[in-house]
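Researcher: I'm preparing a figure for a lab meeting and need a structural model of a single chain. I don't have an experimental structure, so a prediction will have to do for now. The sequence is pasted below. Please return the structure as tokens so I can convert it later.
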Amino acid sequence: MSVRHFVRLKLRLTANGLRGQSWRVALFVLGAVLAAIAAVGGYAAFSVAGLLGEERAAEVVLPLGGAVVVLGWLFLPLVFFGVDESLDPARFALLPLPRRTLIGGLFAASLVGVPAVATFAGTLGMVHSAARLGGPAAALVQLVGVLTGLLLCAALSRSVTSAFATALRSRRARDLATVLLAVTAALLGPLQLAALAGAERADWGGVARVADVVAWTPLGAPYSMGPDVVAGRWWAVPVKLAIVLISIGLLLRWWAATLERAMLGTAGKGRARQRSAADRPPVEQLVPRWLPATRFGALTARELRYWWRESRRRASLITFSVIGVFLPVMLTVSSGSGGLPTGMLVFVGALAAVSLANQFGFEGSAYAANVVAGVPGRVELASRIAGFSAYAGPAFVTIAVVAGIVTNRPAAIPAAFGALVAGYGMALAVVLPMSVRAAYALPETANPFAMSSGGGTAKGLLSFAALIAAALATLPLQLGAHFFDDVWLWLGLPVGIAYGSAGFLLGLRLAGRSLDRRMPELLATVSAAQ
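Model: Understood. Here is the structure written out token by token.
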């Protein structure tokens, strides 16, 4: 079985996944259009230095822009889009395929898709700049750099998500390692955003020195080879090419190791815990004392367990917690303003609600138990929100306290919490109906970031729709925080809670009625064979 068979299989599965699914076709087309727009924008941005004839600008923009592209391939799948695993590695476990063949085929298949095409098209602007500044030789070298950079992006994305998936499967021994890995991974994204936010007041001489350093790292090396030719540094080209190729080889080796462990499985053997309350009734054993012994309490208790024990949900929780804490902090520090970042806090609150955009897809066919039991739609959704909010609430408190301390305004902590709740509730008004109407099945795999063909586009678009809707709906709140700063210290908390509660109740009302009507259709959608 050669690499081309994997590519053909990926294309056929993608086409079959879109067949007869008009909503998937629409989302795929919309995603392709947005990717085309991003590619055109990237091409234009990377071409500017060449069109202006600015050699030094190209030496700064190309490696830094390339580093942003590589980091985007790393973090966007973790936060928004997921990883397309229509070719689930576990399905090849029983086939007599050499590990090199399997990794090569899966790696080639990962390059067949809208993100890879858009990335390649956007980074071709670097080739244009190199051609304008250094002629055909520089353009040819830069084209090699763009191609190797794309390979680096794919290798980094797949290896990190595969390793993260392996760590998240353990419930006890690796929990600390998982959190540390998530913190390490998520810190780089906010730092990158902080650097962009502080660009207006940056020392451009210092930025140029940073670009020179980045150009010798795997992040920027493939994208700085063209400017090196323009500057006459031909000796740097083979060195940087070696850096990139060695990095790709190491990442693929890492991916192969984690992929093999995922395919073989790691069955943990824990000791059975002693149950001191074994003689209690079953309902009291499953439902904590602080929850009512009702259908709502039982469903909430189930959600509390699932959100930490199920790897996909736990991945969402950890990623949100880390990004939610560090993103407002880094933006505040980089901007240098002492004001409360209300808009960013609204964004973080909405980002928490995005974790529920495909809440029924997490369960798949297991949702049949709730359908058979005839759980009312409003009870179903309210229990799910309550279970998730038990984790999101403490995170909101932590984020608000950190934001107040960083801005040196402890009195603004209640207003910060109100902004988080407002963004969360308004995003729920969009997310809850979407979770019923636009649910999609997830592949059966150990990778918590895996998406079926078209699933990544659906997830990304649903996420962005919720974020934009929350930003627009809370615009009066953000304006009030901006123009009535002192007064808002008192009004921010009650107004934010009122906003969030109104959004949640609206979403619950709309989605509850829809769920009562669409339970069978929803079950068929989330349990569809991949």
